[in-house]
Amino acid sequence: MSSSLVILVVGGFFLVRQATAGIVEAKRTSAIAETTATINRIQGQLRDTDLRTASLYERLNRLADDAASQSGQYHVLIQGPVSGLISQGVSPDSVPADLTAQVGESSGVWTAPTMVHYTDHVRPDVPGIVVGSTLWSPGSSQSIPVYFIFPETQEVATVALLRRSVISVGALMAVAIAVTTYLATRHISRPIRQASITASKLAGGDLDERMVVRGTDDLATLASSMNDMAAQLDRRIGELERLSSLQQQFVSDVSHELRTPMTTMRMASEMIEADPHDPVQVRSVELMRAQMERFELLLADLLEISRFDAGAAQLALEDCDIVELVRSEIVDVTPLADRLGVPIVLVADCAQTAEVDPRRISRIIRNLLANAVEHAEGKVVEVTVVGNDCAVGVAVRDHGVGFEPWQAEKVFGRFWRGDPSRVRTVGGSGLGLAISRQDANLHHGWLTAWGRPGQGAFFRLVVPRQPGGVIVESPLPPSPTDGDHADDQEE
């Protein structure tokens, strides 16, 4: 619309300018023709004048007044011998000085634009055209400059009328363009806006939303395509939900069904342990029990994962001291840490209370500690518990093998291992960190990881002090501060 208005304004300006130039040029041509005819007529009348009975300039003034009164289109000024330009009604200032010089230097017809000044001071000054030429005295070579002044009163009125007409028409066209643009934009933008609203609802899960199809144009085609896409999404999502439900049910059923043979196998192992003097039998029973415990852990983790997938996990909230939960888990993992030669250091200035599910928080800390001890390679594991007004944070730092930065999210994947060739020293299901991330999310908290090869790993758990609280600021940094990690200190 703005470009159309610019074109309209520029077009109107050039139209008025061209029309004005044409009117002025037509006036100039008419003035030259009128002046030439009048000069020839006056010159012929002068030849028949008897200068013995009348003065030359009296005769010229009379002839000029007669010509002006008959035409009514111009005023005549005659260059007198003493008093200069002689005229009645028009000031000599109406003749430009440069035109006077041109007429005095050579014969011919000369023109110039001017401003016509009237001597009565009643009529306003108006633009005009001055045409200058010369008359010759009868019987001699004396030249007499004569100037014809043509006021452009009618032309000025015509140009003003044209300008008003162009402005009026331009204003009407601008209004018409604005209305047309508004209607066209509304016609186009309404379906697009409706498509945007429909897409937002589809993205929000309202797969029953559809667009109204009107007409057969491109917008109607867009609406039909949107409806077809929504229908396809609805079908595909329904299929995925059914498959997911079948998968969850399968995992849950298998986990439950395997518990029965596991119980039988455990009972059988206890029975065949009756003869402790056979070292082969004792070792076999130990291996069997270790693998059954690992298998039972895997079944328990699979059941827990299936609860998360089904959205059935619930919190049993209690007001707990997180420091005490950490101490308890350190005590439980100390035998393993002693066996692997890994010292554990706890840094906690005071109690840090929060309303959490102690079973799930303990499980997170247990998984983080077991993971750190396993990968610490005999180096110290540091556990830090701090808090602020809105949250409590637990950090577990080891200085072992570590991992690549791009693996910081992958460590929370199910059954993911950073180094498949590495032998596990701690029996685990491979689901511990995945379950820990889900437990943290269930508390509306964070569980993040940082690692560098050869520099160890840093896991950070942050939970709000109150259920559903917002963590405005973390009490722990996202990476360790025991080295040159300034490039990692970003939330």
TrEMBL record:
Pfam families: HAMP, HATPase_c, HisKA. It comes from Cutibacterium porci. This is Sensor histidine kinase MtrB. It is a multi-pass membrane protein. InterPro entries: HAMP_dom, HATPase_C_sf, HATPase_dom, His_kinase_dom, HisK_dim/P_dom, HisK_dim/P_sf, MtrAB_MtrB, Sensor_HK_Regulatory. Residues 482-491 have a biased composition (Basic and acidic residues). It comes from the Bacteria. It is found in: Cell membrane. It is an enzyme of class 2 (transferase). Residues 470-491 are annotated as: Disordered. The keyword Transferase applies. Residues 253-467 form the Histidine kinase domain. It catalyses: ATP + protein L-histidine = ADP + protein N-phospho-L-histidine. Its EC number is 2.7.13.3. Residues 186-238 form the HAMP domain. GO terms for molecular function: ATP binding; phosphorelay sensor kinase activity. Keywords: ATP-binding, Cell membrane, Kinase, Membrane, Nucleotide-binding, Phosphoprotein, Transferase, Transmembrane, Transmembrane helix, Two-component regulatory system.
